[in-house]
Write a structure and sequence with these properties.
With 307 residues, the protein is mainly beta. The protein has one helix spanning 27-45, and strands spanning 2-4, 20-22, 62-63, 66-73, 79-81, 87-97, 108-109, 112-117, 122-126, 133-136, 141-150, 161-171, 188-192, 197-202, 204-211, 220-231, 236-239, 244-251, 262-265, 271-277, 282-288, 297-298, 302-304.
Length: 307
């Protein structure tokens, strides 16, 4: 389980995963998470703005000369999560910065993370268990690699859908955020929203059973199945109801399924059932095309011997 701590002083600000610490994470990373929270507090709360655009007082962080680009989450593919195991996907991006900005400093933080909802009022957030690693490609650019680590136990079904990426950079410059007398004007900070979007989806399962087996040519074959998907609210799988699913067939001698024979809708429990006529030996399978919240899935073909 991961521990979350929000900064109450950030009025209307983006309470992202920077305020969270995985319980198994090293003390150094946990300390950095706390550093981020304090810097966000100082940068945003004083100005009352959702995004920090520059210092408005001597006790506030200065605006860092840094920007993010080329952000890709999971190589552009949806993040698909089941009910039990952590899912870790890559996040890559490019950073451009002024010549005076030292992104290699030990106390320089520069992650890209995800949030759902509006910028001012996020509903949930996703981040990496560890901070990303960056490689300088010139004196003013760097490429970075990190992860987004998703724990299904921390999700709700409503979290399925589109998430947005935000990046932020903090140059502590030797300042200790735990020091009540810290000079915040020596700390650099910037954040950049709308870097990319990604979809978070509920893992799907699909089964098929064709009977009787064997069957005489010309007789009726009944094909049943179940379409289910991860229920993050309960931590179990539940039927995906009233969804169109295609029935497909391939002959024993072929490796390719034919076009859809017919389309069946799952019932109130996710069950599937239809009939077809036996013609030749082959395999039947159900094929679900997917939705915005659930990935496509194909059942493993069930063989029928036609005599």
């Amino acid at each position: 389980m991961r521990i979350r701590a929000t900064v109450a002083a950030v009025s209307g600000a983006l309470a992202l995963s920077a305020f969270a610490v995985p319980a198994a994470q090293a003390d150094g990373s946990a300390h950095h998470r706390a550093d981020i929270a304090k810097v966000l507090d100082a940068a945003r709360a004083a100005s009352g703005k959702a995004a920090y655009t520059g210092s408005t007082g001597s006790d506030e962080p200065y605006k860092l000369d840094l920007s993010f680009s080329n952000v890709k989450v999971n190589s552009g593919k949806p993040i698909v999560v089941g009910t039990t195991h952590r899912v870790s996907v890559p996040v890559t991006y490019t950073v451009n910065h002024g010549a005076s900005v030292d992104i290699t400093a030990d106390d320089f933080l520069m992650p890209v993370e995800l949030y759902r909802g509006s910028y001012d009022e996020p509903v949930n957030f996703l981040f990496g268990d560890d901070f990303p690693s960056c490689t300088e490609t010139s004196s003013t650019t760097a490429t970075c690699k990190g992860t987004i680590d998703v724990y299904p136990q921390e999700l709700m079904n409503e979290d399925a859908g589109t998430w947005k990426a935000i990046g932020y950079a903090i140059a502590l410059n030797g300042i200790d955020p735990e020091d009540d007398n810290a000079d915040w004007s020596k700390v650099g900070y910037t954040e950049q929203d709308a870097l990319a979007t990604t979809k978070l989806q509920r893992y799907a399962r699909l089964t098929v059973n064709a009977s009787p087996e064997p069957v005489k040519k010309g007789k009726t074959i009944t094909v049943t199945g179940l379409l289910s998907r991860a229920n993050w609210d309960t931590g179990k799988y539940a039927g995906y109801t009233v969804q169109p699913v295609g029935l497909q067939f391939r002959t024993k001698s072929s490796s390719t399924y034919t076009s859809t024979l017919k389309t069946v809708k799952s019932d109130s429990k996710g069950n599937l059932k239809t009939t077809t006529t036996a013609t030749v030996d082959g395999y039947f399978r159900y094929n679900f095309a997917g939705t915005s919240t659930t990935p496509a899935v194909k059942a493993t073909g069930d063989y029928v011997d036609v005599q």
